[in-house]
Amino acid sequence: RYALQEELARGGMGVVVVAHDRALGRTVAVKLLRPEFADRPALVGRFVEEARITGRLQHPGVPPIYDVGTRPDGSPFLAMKLIRG
């Protein structure tokens, strides 16, 4: 569903990339778990829990979460509103 494009940011656990949501025809940000953590169940669980918690928040400083799922390689991702700057 998401055509990944360029990397936007990198953090301790994840990488945020700009992506095109083919289903809805919009540009979004997709956060991916860094590959070196994919085989660590505790970190995968923490990543997914972060997505669930963030998805419940409504605050001007927190981008809305659109989707959470698993990539073909089994690693988790979350898609959110793209906010540049």
What's a concise summary of this model?
By secondary structure, the protein is α+β, with helices and mostly antiparallel strands. The chain has one helix at 41-56; strands at residues 2-10, 14-21, 26-33, 65-70, 76-81.
Provide an overview of this structure.
With 85 residues, this protein is an alpha+beta fold. It has a five-stranded antiparallel sheet, covered by helices on one side. The longest helix has 16 residues, at 41-56. It has one helix at residues 41-56; strands at residues 2-10, 14-21, 26-33, 65-70, 76-81. The chain has one helix and five strands, in the order βββαββ.
Question: Between the first and last Cα atoms, what is the distance in angstroms?
Answer: 25 Å
Shape: globular
Helical stretch count? Answer: 1
Radius of gyration: 12 Å
- Report low-confidence residues grouped into runs of 5 or more: none
**SSE pattern, N- to C-terminal:** EEEHEE
Strand content: 35-45%
Largest sheet: 5 strands, antiparallel
In total, how many beta strands? 5
